[in-house]
Design a protein that fits this description.
CATH superfamily: Alpha/Beta hydrolase fold, catalytic domain
Structural class: alpha/beta
Strand content: 15-25%
Shape: globular
Order of helices and strands: HEEEHHEHEHEEHEH
Number of strands: 8
Largest sheet: 8 strands, mixed
Helix content: 25-40%
């Protein structure tokens, strides 16, 4: 375990040293979370990051990040294919995989709202915050929004994120609590919601958005960003449909970063 910790920290040290000179290449880092469990991350940063984002893909969440930074699954996901856009916006960008004990089916399916997932993400938040000194935001898309919302409601203000971004939010779900059904009243952090008005996924109908925004009424800072442009191809719940902000990735990420950073 000590060797694993040293390995992860040495990689991160090299990453942040390189940031002083130029944008670092993506680095794969494994950090310990629960006993006997590690969490693999893909980390990339601009020279002088202003904040950090941890990106949560949708679907089953098992990205299967290889040692060379390639993806076994999910490379077309909205957040995964747009990760460099967050870097371009001045954000330290961390892509999170399923943990080491969930590297086979069903991966994170059925576990996004459980205590083990919250513990893993808590460890990642703490690691990023300790090493960078930056505020840490959780950014989820589709079923990734169930991860970030559930984690934020489970963790204390000190251990949890500094803010949330929900994109293509799961607004209804017969099999698990939707984001709207979660205890969002526990939150006291900024929450940004980005949604395509033409999202054709049955779990993400824009007509359900008022219910979510009403549950966020008590927050000191919240906003809904809605979009209508782009292209929709294939399954309406997949990444190349309106659900995945196909064709407007740069605009969406730019508006997200601008809101987060108060620009």
């Amino acid at each position: 375990m000590q060797q694993l910790v040293k390995y992860g920290f040495s990689l991160l040290l090299g990453l942040f040293v390189s940031l002083a000179y130029a944008q670092a290449d993506p680095k794969v880092v494994d950090i310990p979370t629960r006993p006997g469990v590690t969490q693999r991350l893909l980390v990339q940063s601009p020279p002088s990051p202003k904040a950090a984002v941890i990106l949560f893909a949708g679907g089953h969440g098992g990205l299967q990040i290889a040692a060379d930074g390639s993806f076994g699954w999910g490379k077309g996901n909205f957040l995964i294919r747009s990760r460099h856009l967050f870097v371009d916006q001045g954000l330290l960008t961390v892509v999170i995989d399923a943990p080491s004990d969930r590297q086979s089916a069903p991966y994170l399916a059925g576990n996004r709202q459980g205590p083990e997932h919250a513990a893993d993400v808590q460890a990642v938040i703490g690691w990023v915050r300790q090493q960078s000194g930056l505020p840490v935001w959780l950014v989820g898309t589709s079923r990734g929004t169930q991860s970030v919302a559930a984690v934020a409601t489970r963790l204390s203000r000190a251990d949890g994120p500094d803010g949330l971004v929900l994109t293509a939010t799961i607004l209804t779900d017969p099999k698990a609590p939707s984001v709207t059904a979660m205890a969002l009243e526990k939150l006291s952090i900024p929450v940004l919601v980005a949604h395509h008005e033409l999202d054709g996924c049955s779990h993400c109908a824009y007509s359900e958005m008022p219910n979510l925004m009403q549950k966020l009424d008590g927050l000191p800072r919240k906003q809904l960003l809605s979009f209508r442009d782009g292209f929709s191809r294939g399954d309406p719940c997949e990444a190349m449909a309106y659900h995945g902000f196909n064709g407007i990735e740069r605009e969406v990420v730019g508006q997200i970063a601008g809101w987060m950073l108060g620009r």
